[in-house]
Amino acid sequence: MVITELLEKNAKIQPDEVALVEINGDNIPSAHITWREFSLIEAKPGEKYRREMTWKEFNTKANRFANLLLTRGVKRNDKVALLLMNSLEWLPIYFGILKAGAIAVPMNFRYTSSEISYCIDLADVSTLVFGPEFTGRVEEALNDMPNVKTLFYVGNDVPSFAEDYMKLSVYCSTVSPAIDIKEDDYSAIYFSSGTTGFPKAILHTHEALYSSCRTEQNHHSQTREDNFLCIPPLYHTGAKMHWFGSLLAGSKAVLLRGVTPQTILRTISDEQITIVWLLVPWAQDILDAIDSGEINLADYNLSQWRLMHIGAQPVPPSLINRWKKIFPHHEYDTNYGLSESIGPGCVHLGVENINKVGAIGKAGFLWEIDIVDPDTNEKVKQGDVGELIVKGPGVMKCYYKNPQATDEVLKDGWLHTGDMAMMDDDGFIFLVDRKKDVIISGGENIYPVQIEDFLRTNDKIKDVAVIGLADQRLGEITAAIIELKPGVDCSEDEINDFCKALPRYKRPKKVIFADVPRNPTGKIEKPKLREKYGATRLVEAQNKS
C-alpha cells in the first residue's frame, strides 16, 4: 500500500470529520477567549487564528493540485519542491505531488537564497511551490535556478514571477489522476541537516513512507479518538512521520504556528489534544514556566493529554524526571531516527519502559539494530561502545547523485548512523555521542552527551553543549557552553565545584556562558560552536605568543 491510498480511504469512510486544524499562535488572543471563539477573527491579512479541514477537503485539494501539476507537464519522477511554513496547505500539496507520480522535495524554511538554489539544483527540481515568507529569497535565487520551469505561490499578493496556486487549483479536477503508483517507486527527497557543509539529498520510496505509518501507529497506538499536536516544521521527517500515525488511524491533528509554553498548553487545552511530540527545549521551557509561576496549570484543561514523547536528540533523564513529577499520568516515549531512516522510530523506548529513561530503547517495529566497531564493522561486545547501525523498510534508497557518500553509510542493507552507542544487559541502547563529536583528550575518548546530561542536573542551567577545542598538549580539551536560566547568576567556580562529582578527565577545562544554538529540529549546532570558540581560542593563543 502507498500512503495516498490511506488519504483516499479516510476521505471515503469519514469525509466530514476534521482531519487537520491550523492554529496561528503568533498573536495570542485574550486568555479568557478560546481559539474557537476567535476562529473568524483575522490575526494577519489572509490568516485566521484557527482554520480546519475535513478529510474530504484534504483529499480534494490534493487531487486538484495533482491535476494542476499534470497540466504543467509534470511527469512521473519529476521533482517538485515545497518551501512553506506549516499551514493547512502544506500536506494537501505534498500529497498532490505524490498522486501525480512526482517526487516531493520538502525544503528547510531557514535556507538562505544560496542554499535554496543549491538544493534545487542538487535534487533536479523543475517545479517550486513557495509561500510569502520566501518571496525575497526565491526572487534572489531565480537566476541560479535555470531548471525550474514553474513556480507556484501560496498566499496573497502573488509576485510577478510566480503563478497563483489558490486561483489555479480550484479549476482543476477533484478526481485523483489515474497514475499507478507502486511501493518501490520513488516518493520523496529529504535533505540532511547540513552540519558538515551543504546538505545531502536523501531519496526515499513509497514503501519507506508507508512503513513509517505502521511503525508510528504501532509505537503510540493512535486511534480515531486521538488528536495529535504537530509543532515542528513539516519539511522535516520527524514531524510528518509522527503525523503519519494519525493518517493511518484516521485521527485529527493540529498544526501549531508560534511556539511558547503558554501557546502550547493553551492549544492542548482548547483543542483537547491527546498526543504531543516535543523537542527538548520546548519541554524545558514548559517546565521552567511552571516552576517560575509564569504558568498556572489550573488555567488549562489537560486531563485528556495521555502521551508526551520526545525525539531528534539525546534526552536528559533529569528532564523526564522533572516532567513525570508534574505530569505523573502521562505516558512517555522517546524516539530515535534519522532522515536517512525516514525519520523517527527505528529505535524507540516504549511507554512501558519508563524505568529505562536515558536509553533510546530497542529496535522499533519493522526494524533491526546492531552496534559495530566503526573501523572493522565487527559486532562489539555487549556493554562496549560502537557505532549504531539500523536496517528496515525505511532505510533510504541512496544519497541522490552521491554514490560515494551512499557507499560510506549503506553496507549490505545496513545504515551506519554515525552515532556511538552501547547496549546494556537488558538489550536497551544508550546513545553515547555522534562519532564526529567524540573528544579525544590525552588519548582518552570523552563522550560529550554524558557530561551534558550531568550538567543539566544543575538547577541553574537551562541548556548546555560540550565540545572539543584544539589543545597543543592534549590534542583537545573539553569546553562547556552553558546557557543559564533567565535571571540566574552563576560563576565559573560554581560550575567547576559542581563538576567535581565527575571523573577528573571528564571535567570541562573551559566554561563559557552563552546561548546554546539549536536547529529547527532541536539539535545542538555544534559545528557553529566549534567554529566560533575554536577561532576564539586560536586568537587567544596568538595573543599569548
Shape: globular
Number of helices: 15
CATH homologous superfamily annotation of the domain at 438-544: ANL, C-terminal domain
Determine the strand fraction and express it as a percent band. Answer: 25-35%
Straight-line N-to-C gap: 66 Å
How much helix is in the residues?
Answer: 25-40%
Evaluate the radius of gyration: 24 Å
CATH class of the domain at 438-544: Alpha Beta
| Main pleated sheet | 9 strands, mixed
β-strand number: 29
User: Would you tell me the structural class of the helices and strands?
Assistant: alpha/beta
Detail the poorly predicted runs. Answer: 30-43, 541-545
Describe this entry's structure for a reader.
There is one protein chain. The chain has 545 residues and is of the alpha/beta class. The chain has a domain of 107 residues: 2-Layer Sandwich (GMP Synthetase, Chain A, domain 3). Helix content is 30%, strand content 27%. The protein has 15 helices and 29 strands. The strands form seven sheets. Strands 4-1-13-12-14-15-16-17-18 form a nine-stranded mixed beta sheet, sandwiched between helices. A five-stranded parallel beta sheet has the order 6-5-7-8-9, sandwiched between helices. Strand 5, helix 3 and strand 6 form a beta-alpha-beta unit. Helix 1 crosses helix 2 and helix 2 crosses helix 3. It is globular and about 70 Å long. It starts with a helix and ends with a helix. The C terminus is likely disordered.
